[in-house]
């Protein structure tokens, strides 16, 4: 068999999604620490900043007026209202990184992931899931950022979001105390995608 000549690898647009409390922030923080060369897109939101969050790293925190201005001017690739607050993905940040040949990582809820699938069908969608609803409830309560009523709402929404699995390309379980295993699984998915015979082509206007 003759050798196979491969062209330069094309960049990927990867969406990490899943229910609130599944551990998306913790996984992405560990991925940053591992040094994988993603461009991690910082989402804009009207939600108040939590004590452990850093402006510009976890989110850009905007007023309602600032967010609506970005929305009207077409600066957001995707936007959604979740639990009473707005979240959006800056379009230019994604486009510039892809144009520079960088793999891009987005953290979105399931609604946002579905929107990106329509806009960029070749995007790689990964669903991060807790191993069970009991552990999921325990995680939500342990972080102590929501009231009992808000936890109940999030648990109900999580059950609905689990039914969206067919939308995704991959599912990764984030078991308690096994964060590195989840990160390893995501890195393995990206590595496999980089070796596709027919690469995904990310087209973003």
SSE topology:
Blueprint lengths: L12 E5 L6 H11 L3 E3 L3 E2 L14 E2 L2 H9 L3 E7 L2 E6 H9 L3 E5 L2 H10 L4 E6 L3 H11 L4 H15 L7 E4 L5 H16 L11
Parallel strand pairs: 1-7, 1-8, 2-7, 3-4, 8-9
Antiparallel strand pairs: 3-6, 5-6
Helix pairs in contact: 1-7, 5-6
How would you explain this protein's 3D organization?
This protein is an alpha/beta fold. It has a single domain, classed as Rossmann fold, CATH 3.40.50.300. The chain is built from seven helices and nine strands; from the N terminus they run E-H-E-E-E-H-E-E-H-E-H-E-H-H-E-H. It has a five-stranded parallel beta sheet, with helices on both faces. Strand 5 and strand 6 form a beta hairpin. Helix 5 runs antiparallel to helix 6.
Give the spatial strand order of the biggest sheet.
2-7-1-8-9
Q: Radius of gyration over alpha carbons?
A: 17 Å
Query: How many strands?
Result: 9
Assign the CATH superfamily.
Answer: P-loop containing nucleotide triphosphate hydrolases
Number of domains: 1
So how many helices? 7
The CATH topology turns out to be Rossmann fold
The global form is globular
Major β-sheet profile? 5 strands, parallel
Low-pLDDT residue intervals, each spanning 5 or more residues: 1-7
Q: So, CATH architecture?
A: 3-Layer(aba) Sandwich
Q: What percent of the residues sit in helical stretches (DSSP H or I)?
A: 25-40%
Report mean pLDDT, rounded to a whole number.
85
Distance between the termini: 40 Å
**Name of the level-1 CATH class:** Alpha Beta
* SSE order: EHEEEHEEHEHEHHEH
Estimated structural class: alpha/beta
Proportion of strand residues = 15-25%
């Amino acid at each position: 068999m003759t050798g196979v000549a491969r062209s330069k690898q094309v960049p990927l647009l990867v969406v990490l999604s899943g229910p609130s409390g599944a551990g998306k922030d913790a996984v992405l923080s560990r991925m940053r620490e591992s040094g994988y060369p993603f461009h991690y897109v910082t989402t804009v939101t009207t939600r108040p900043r939590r004590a452990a969050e850093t402006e510009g790293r976890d989110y850009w925190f905007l007023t309602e007026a600032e967010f609506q201005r970005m929305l009207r001017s077409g600066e957001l690739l995707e936007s959604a209202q979740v639990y009473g607050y707005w979240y959006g993905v800056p379009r230019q940040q994604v486009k510039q990184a892809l144009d520079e040949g960088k793999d891009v990582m987005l953290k979105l809820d399931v609604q946002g992931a579905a929107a990106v699938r329509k806009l960029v069908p070749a995007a790689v969608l990964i669903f991060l899931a807790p191993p069970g609803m009991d552990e999921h409830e325990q995680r939500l309560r342990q972080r102590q950022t929501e009231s009992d009523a808000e936890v109940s709402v999030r648990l109900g929404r999580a059950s609905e979001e689990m039914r969206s699995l067919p939308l995704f390309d991959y599912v990764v379980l984030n078991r308690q105390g096994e964060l590195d295993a989840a990160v390893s699984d995501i890195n393995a998915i990206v590595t496999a995608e980089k070796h596709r015979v027919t690469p995904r082509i990310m087209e973003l206007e």
